[in-house]
Amino acid sequence: MKRKMGDRKKGGEIKKKRTEWPLIKPKAKLQITRLKDNDLFTVHNFFTSAESKAFVKAAESTGFVHQGSLGPTYGEAYRDNDRISVNDPVLADKIWKSGLDILLSDLKIRGKVAVGLNTNIRFYRYKVGQRFGRHIDESTDLGEGKHTHYTLLVYLSGGCKLKSKNDSDGTGDSSSEPLVGGETVFYGPRNSLVAEVPPTEGTALLHIHGDKCMLHEARNVTKGVKYVLRSDIAFA
Q1: Record's Gene Ontology CC terms (predicted)?
Q2: Across the strands, what pairs with 140?
């Protein structure tokens, strides 16, 4: 059963003084690694290590708020993480123009082209024992003819190398301590495994959402802390 799980407006909204987010350098040689046609792909080194660490530091200084759910019994996916949500058009534009605008220039859906990011930028923190159960991401009507059709996740911590099902398990170096667990896992028909994406610092993960969204989950973190930046790709 697919369980839709949107971000709760009442949790994690930041109304404090404006956070000074890190500068982001434009990347000219970004490349897409497709995991499933056009529906699911990664972009390595979308953020540099320094940029990722700077975002973590800024988010921690802003302050996270715990985000939970009523759970599957009440028709919601299990959710246990910490969250920040900011509406920041300037930050959204900087992330978009750091290379996504060029990389996704040929990406179309329903005759629409990618035009930018949802200005609602979210930061997630998963400590040991925290996870986000199987769910789908909904499309958002942003007004002015804009709708979101892809989720953007940027891992801000983690040191694993992306691997196929035939690769041996292993983790690499992390920024401070190793991050173990926290994989983003996608499922197809009959709960078949489509892809398993370990958190890798600076890597962006994009997947289609809305009525074509694959069931997916963020697995339990067993060591370290997982940090993720989240937004959505808008089309018009």
Answers
A1: endoplasmic reticulum membrane
A2: none
Q: Write the burial class of residue 216 (CB in 10 Å: 0-12 exposed, 13-18 middle, 19+ buried).
A: buried
Mean pLDDT value across residues 135-154: 97
Q: In the numeric block, which tokens belong to residue 222? A: 């067993």
Within a 10 A sphere around the Cβ of 128, how many other Cβ atoms?
A: 14
Q: What is the pLDDT of residues 205-217, one digit of tens each?
A: 999 999 999 999 9
Pairwise pLDDT comparison (40 vs 171), residue with the higher score: 40
Measured distance CA(26)–CA(183) in Å, rounded: 27
What is the pTM assigned to this prediction? 0.86
User: Tokens for 192?
Assistant: 């078949």
Closest CA to 133 of 7, 228, 224, 3: 3
DSSP for 78-118 reads -EEEEEEEEE-HHHHHHHIIIIIHHHTTT-EETTEEEEEE-
